[in-house]
UniProtKB/TrEMBL annotation:
This is RNA polymerase ECF family sigma subunit. One of its GO terms (biological process) is DNA-templated transcription initiation. The lineage of its organism: Bacteria, Pseudomonadati, Pseudomonadota, Gammaproteobacteria, Candidatus Competibacteraceae. Residues 121-171 form the RNA polymerase sigma factor 70 region 4 type domain. Residues 20-79 form the RNA polymerase sigma-70 region domain. Residues 189-289 form the DUF6596 domain. Transmembrane segments: none annotated. GO terms for molecular function: DNA binding; sigma factor activity. InterPro entries: DUF6596, RNA_pol_sigma-70_dom, RNA_pol_sigma70_r2, RNA_pol_sigma70_r4_t2, RNA_pol_sigma_r2, RNA_pol_sigma_r3/r4-like, WH-like_DNA-bd_sf.
Length: 427
């Protein structure tokens, strides 16, 4: 195996093992930043030794052992410094160092799943900004480099590095405990965790900026995190709801772009290209959420909406009345202008474009949607369906001016041009 092959293998192994390393170290050291540094030290050691000695039979165990030795050395140095300050004798020093090493060994044998769950809740702590939570989650749980995160979100690498450094400093200064919250605090914290995972997925599914309609790597990373979370918190219905939503949406990935990378809208997609395995996994996750009982939460409701599309073999078979009813429930449970806009689309499909346009028009004064390109895009579509092509063209052009995604801009301008042509055609 060449040095390049070994380096690629190390990177792949790191993606799989890094979160476990950081989680185990953070539990013992109570410092996420320090835990990541020591895990990175183990990675550097692998990059130095494996090209020479070969990849170990159990690479994850090798990385864990290496990281553990570095952590023990750190604990010994810290204990030594503290004992020197307290003017303790040599015998006590050796005894405490041995105890530290022994307790570390025992603690590392604990259930690794608990460590990962703690790490998820720490990286997604509400004390951090949304951007910081996303960056830290991708770094600690995804094993992504700062450069990879920067490329994924089209921001300077220095910006991402700064967010990560500040996030770790904020967690330390706020003395955020490395634990899974209990009781009433769990729901609030879980909401933050799910929001971060879905933010990552959405940025991959419909990129907000740049020249690509999708960034599949981010979708895959969010799905991986969601599946891990579902395994760690199997009794939380909203976790399964989010996984179901992402699985079903991800099933459309191959059909969402054309040969040149251009966007293909839902109703125009070749459903034969939808991934049936992901659909089955998504429907199974939705069934698990429903089986846990109680009213469906926001993610499970959105998954139920996605399931309506997944079950329809053709666009005309879609149960739009059920989708509209599910959006009614979602609007009541988690009201927002974006939910109302989606509800307008569902109403238009179920009961005619006039019904949808009435609701969309009511959102024109909504401050949160003033720069949201999908509002004029939806209005343009509904106006075109009503034969009001000149008005529709203006809306599509406005939407094109607001979007930051190049592919989406091309699509919107093409729809505006089509409306211009239709307006000039005698009826």
């Amino acid at each position: 195996m060449t040095g390049t092959d070994v380096h690629r293998s190390v990177e792949a192994i790191w993606r799989i093992e890094s979160a476990k390393l950081v989680g185990a170290l953070a539990r013992l050291l109570r410092d996420v930043g320090l835990a990541e540094e020591l895990a990175q030290d183990a990675l550097v050691a692998a990059l130095e030794q494996w090209p020479v000695d070969g990849i170990p039979e159990r690479p994850g165990a090798w990385l864990m052992a290496t990281a553990k030795h570095r952590a023990i050395d750190h604990l010994r140095r810290r204990a030594l410094l503290e004992r020197k300050h307290a003017a303790l004798g040599r015998e006590h020093e050796a005894e405490q160092a041995a105890l530290a090493a022994a307790s570390f060994d025992a603690a590392l044998d604990d259930d690794i799943g608990d460590d990962l769950l703690r790490l998820v809740f720490t990286a997604c702590h509400p004390v951090l900004s949304r951007e910081a939570r996303v960056a830290l989650t991708l770094r600690l749980l995804g094993g992504l480099s700062t450069a990879e995160i920067a490329r994924a979100f089209l921001v300077p690498e220095a910006t991402v590095a700064q967010r990560i450094v500040r996030a770790k400093r904020t967690l330390a200064e706020a003395r955020v405990p490395f634990e899974v919250p209990r009781g009433p605090g769990l729901a609030a914290r879980l909401s933050s965790v799910l929001e971060v995972v879905y933010l990552i997925f959405n940025e991959g599914y419909a990129a907000t900026a740049g020249d690509d309609w999708m960034r599949p790597a981010l979708c895959e990373e969010a799905l991986r995190l969601g599946r891990i979370l579902a395994g760690l918190a199997p009794q939380e219905p909203e976790v399964h709801g989010l996984v179901a939503l992402m699985e079903i949406q991800a099933s459309r990935a191959r059909a969402r772009t054309g040969p040149a990378g251009e966007p293909v809208l839902l109703l125009d997609q070749d459903r034969g290209r939808w991934d049936q395995l992901l659909i089955r996994r998504g429907l199974a996750a939705l069934a698990r959420a429903e089986a846990l009982g109680g009213a469906l939460g926001p993610y499970a409701l959105q998954a139920a909406i996605a399931a309506c599309h997944a079950r329809a073999r053709t666009p005309t078979e879609t149960d739009w009345a059920r989708i509209a009813a599910l959006y009614d429930a979602l609007a009541e449970l988690a009201p927002s202008p974006v939910v109302e806009l989606n509800r307008a689309v569902a109403l238009a499909m179920a009961f005619g474009p006039e019904a949808g346009l009435e609701l969309a028009d009511a959102l024109l004064a909504e401050p949160a949607l003033q720069r949201y390109h999908l509002l004029p895009s939806v209005r343009g579509d509904l106006l075109a369906r009503l034969g009001r092509h000149a008005e529709a063209r203006a809306e599509f052009e406005r939407a094109a001016a607001l979007t930051r995604n190049g592919r989406e801009r091309e699509l919107l301008l093409a729809r505006a041009a089509a409306c211009a042509g239709a307006a000039q055609t005698p009826s």
